[in-house]
Specification:
Layout (H helix, E strand, L loop, with lengths): L1 H18 L3 E2 H8 L3 H13 L3 E3 L9 E4 L1 H16 L1
Helix pairs in contact: 1-2, 1-3, 2-3
Amino acid sequence: MQQALAGAARASVLRHVVHHPRSSHTEIVASTGVSRGSATTALRDLEQLGYLVVDGPREGRVVRYRAVDDQLAADLAALSDWLLA
């Protein structure tokens, strides 16, 4: 169950950042309802997977994120190919 929730948190965070580039951690938490801890974990995981990057320099303590569209498109195409094969 915990992994399913972690997956849901990652999906919510990713969806938010795709639709709202340059989102901060605080904005993501407020908009998605994901807990701060889950958002932190999701952001770290998504960054390690190559789906998100930090967008620009830190603004004080604020870090902003954006999606890596090419990586998302490639992986979604591969998933689609696999599902439809």
